Amino acid sequence: QVQLVESGGGLVQPGGSLRLSCAASGFNFRAHNMAWYRQARGEQREVVAIITSGGSTNYADSVKGRFTISRDNAKNTVYLQMDSLKPEDTAVYYCNRRPSVFSWGQGTQVTVSS
After folding, report:
1. Which of 38, 43, 44, 58 is deepest in the core (most CB within 10 A)?
2. CB burial of residue 61 (10 Å; 0-12, 13-18, 19+)
């Protein structure tokens, strides 16, 4: 069955960096577009970054220039490098297929606070 396991979150000060990882299994990873999503407390889940099966990327305006999505098809893993973090980036971060999603993983909490 499909599994998506996110990791790499934590507490970081404003301006800091984190690198999230998502290990995928149970489907043909290299054939699918993947994305990172986030959900802040009390808010709807939103997509922040997309990477196509061919490696093209797209970002939400709120993270453009600060976040970088990448993938390693040999490792069935998608990454999110997050730099210049802001308090408003605080959320649980998830990875999933795009546009149609699988069941969600547990996510990884990112907290940006001084």
Report:
1. 38
2. exposed
